[in-house]
């Protein structure tokens, strides 16, 4: 939709009325198959921000772009975002460190894939997103003991 709108803006010579088209995203570290990779995740899936002068012509270009289905607002016209709202969204997009997304949660069974406890299974006791660490309760010698590991050192057990 963003590409369609930008193409229409250029072909209809509307750059003097429609300035920017933004899909709000943030970087996120995804851990899959023991690999870390950085992905861009949409902050508001399905939404696109358009900075423009609201005229009949610019409104026509945006609302008749393929992929545009509706607008945030009441009635026939979109409601503009407040400056503070826009600044908050842009600041969120420029976040310093990417968030880490893990595929397990507290209370879930996991298997340790690296380190001295390789192949042990345990239960997630706590997740520390700031440090990229997870505390797992592992049972050995008949007792449960907490083990702190990196996100990469564990994998979710499939139920």
UniProtKB/TrEMBL annotation:
Q: Pfam families in the record, alphabetically?
A: KOW, NusG
Question: What is the recorded name of this protein?
Answer: Transcription termination/antitermination protein NusG
Asked if the Swiss-Prot or TrEMBL record annotates the protein with the keyword Transcription regulation, the reply is: yes
Q: Where is the signal peptide?
A: none
Q: Record's Gene Ontology CC terms? A: cytosol
Gene that this polypeptide is encoded by:
nusG
Q: Which GO terms describe its biological process?
A: DNA-templated transcription elongation; DNA-templated transcription termination; regulation of DNA-templated transcription elongation; transcription antitermination
Per UniProt, which keywords does this protein have? Answer: Transcription, Transcription antitermination, Transcription regulation, Transcription termination
For this chain, the family text in UniProt reads: Belongs to the NusG family.
Q: In this protein, which residues make up the domain named KOW?
A: 103-130
Instruction: Identify the residues that the record assigns to the NusG-like N-terminal domain, covering every copy.
Output: 2-93
What the entry lists under CDD domains is as follows:
KOW_NusG, NGN_Bact_1
Q: What does this protein do?
A: Participates in transcription elongation, termination and antitermination.
């Amino acid at each position: 939709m963003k590409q369609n709108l930008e193409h229409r803006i250029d072909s209809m010579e509307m750059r003097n009325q429609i300035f920017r088209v933004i899909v709000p995203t943030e970087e996120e570290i995804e851990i899959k198959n023991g690999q870390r990779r950085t992905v861009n995740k949409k902050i508001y899936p399905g939404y696109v921000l358009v900075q423009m002068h609201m005229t009949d012509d610019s409104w026509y270009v945006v609302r008749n772009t393929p992929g545009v289905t509706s607008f945030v607002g009441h009635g026939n016209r979109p409601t503009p975002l407040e400056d503070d709202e826009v600044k908050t969204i842009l600041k969120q997009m420029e976040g310093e460190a990417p968030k880490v997304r893990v595929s397990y949660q507290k209370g879930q069974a996991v298997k340790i894939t690296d380190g001295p406890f390789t192949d042990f299974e345990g239960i997630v006791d706590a997740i520390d997103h700031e440090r990229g660490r997870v505390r797992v309760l592992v049972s050995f010698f008949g007792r449960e003991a907490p083990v702190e590991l990196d996100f990469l050192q564990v994998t979710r057990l499939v139920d």
